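Input set for joint prediction.
Command: fold jointly, output tokens.
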Amino acid sequence: MKRVYVNEDVCLGCHLCEYECAFSTVKDRDDTGKINNMFKAFNRDVSPKSKIRIEELNGDNPEEKINFAVSCRHCETPYCVMGCITGALSQGEDGVIRINHDKCIGCRTCIVMCPYGCLVINNDKTMLKCELCTEHNETPACVKACPNRAIVYEERE
Amino acid sequence: MGKHTKYLIIGNSAAGIGAVEGIRIADPLGQILVISDEDYHTYSRPLISYWLEGKVADENIYYRDPDYYSSQDVQVKLGDKVLELNPSDKSVTLDTGEEIRFDKCLLATGSHPFVPPIKGKDTAKNATTFTKMEDALKADEIIKECELEGRKPKVIILGAGLIGLKACEAIYDQADEITILDLADRVMPSVFNKNASEVMEEFIKSKGINLLLQTSIDEILDKQVRLTNGETLDYDLLFLAVGTRPAVELAEGAGIETDRGIVVDPYQQTSEANIYAAGDCTLSFDISSQSVKNIAILPNAYIQGKYAGLNMAGQDVQTEELFPLNSMGFLGLHLITAGCYDGESIIVDDDGVYKEFFVKDNKLIGYIIIGTCERSGIYTHLIRKQTDLSEVDFDSLILEPTLSSFGKQDRFNKLSRPH
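tokens >
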């Protein structure tokens, strides 16, 4: 399956992926996939959360500074799905791991199970995760937004 | 001759469902029959406390979608109890008298609530254990009866472990007064170490809950208990939440090896060929303490079930690494525990979040976190893979779980390769 893969050597740490990810689940869009009403989508009090996060590693000098993006790996052995006590997390036949927000109770067992730290606690205390948001676009919003191909969406062996 | 099925699964909870999903990976067509003495569509046992609290709606207590059995092409017999398992002729006998033959059988029989031999327990009014849907329904009925009388119930909970505390959380807003009793000298002794128990005890008391440790019930009277300290307490609702014991009677009756849990090999097979076991009824090898024990938690039940299913369907795969692990919310406080608490202890008190790590032979073997900690699965994976801590920047990891504390090649493997 196609997944989001990271190239930390070229990540600028610009956080554009996080920004785009936060809005990736907004459904009210025009034919080109553009959000119709950004005022409505952006709520200053409870700002939407990103499912991808930039990590920063500061070395002893500026050249050693490293950034990279982390989002769900959609593992073949999905510890989060196996550990989910409610059945809210599931892996589709396409390999994508999705979450049913009506079923999630925010017990955080998935946080304890995930080897990569990819679950995010949403404003309502249920879990958020990358679902590859390919329903609006062929490419996930984070990858589309990346100016330097530090994340790519492709098949790898 | 009775009915025949290729796969027979006894138990309809996490381990049984894990087995269905394991079998279907390897054998999309083989006939599967699931038998359970509970007459419910598969539901999540840990959710009964959330249901009683009113946080989970009736339709969301189910572990899988309503059309699950038909979509997986699984036959079910719900409400029928298996009385006897006969390994030699690969058959079971049900309480209906029906006999069913199988090629492969999974024991996913779970556990029974353990109630200590207290005088009056069998005739106790308004008393319930708290492990099944029926228990939650009974508690709910008692709460509603009190409501009809225009009052909130007085509640006594015997057992300050996970089950007792989840019962406490469930009825916290619905109860007039709550008293938790435990014979042990601290709360959650099987999940916490002493430090974490103390934090929890303070929190329980700060919520106005009566906590009586080193105290149990001598006798249950008419909606009243006499405590071991001689005092008597009235109650409207009594939870008997001391703990659970693996349900091994079916295995024992069949001559399968048990030792306070069904003994299984790394492929989830029991001492009998063609008979497998998974979940709370089994013993597992705990990689964190390097010992064999009963680890009664849902994630392990599903994992064991899934691998049992794969092996029943002819694959040859060992179960994932297993160890205890809990994530628990209690009245807004979050607690995470994993592994065991031997070895050197490293305590990090970070901005109100309490973290304690346990290191042995330069490997992380356990941790406890009280308070919010995102990404703690990064710690869990160190236990799971028994990573040598010289390969990571452990000093920065214990402050914050990040992948930047791993080496570059490690990060590449994690983030730039499929797995």
